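Entry:
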Amino acid sequence: MNSKMLKSFRTSMLVPLTVLCVATVAQAQTAKPIASSASMPMGGMQSGAAGSADMKQSMMSGMDSMQKMQMSGDTDKDFAMMMKIHHQGAVDMAQMELAHGKSPVMKAMAKNIIAAQKKEIAQFDRWLATQK
């Protein structure tokens, strides 16, 4: 794989992540702060607010994992590894929706996302196992 292809791959993965980070920072600067559950009386934090904070933390953790991932130089392998992290983030967020969400429509979507993303994660795992 040549360096031009690797640079293009990295750019295609990092541009959406950068946009997401900028949007998250902008939202954080304009959003009302959510008080920590540790400083609130029992039951003081609404389930939805806790779920939203957990989702944001999960997303940030996944982005951090992708940014810290050592690139192998093999586009296929790097794609599979990064997409696996990305898909796991979607599963984590969907599970938080099931735990904290109220909309039956969103809960149904979350269930579908979990099933689809777990299937694709398994496909990535099987393929990666053949690449050792």
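Residues 3-129 form one domain.
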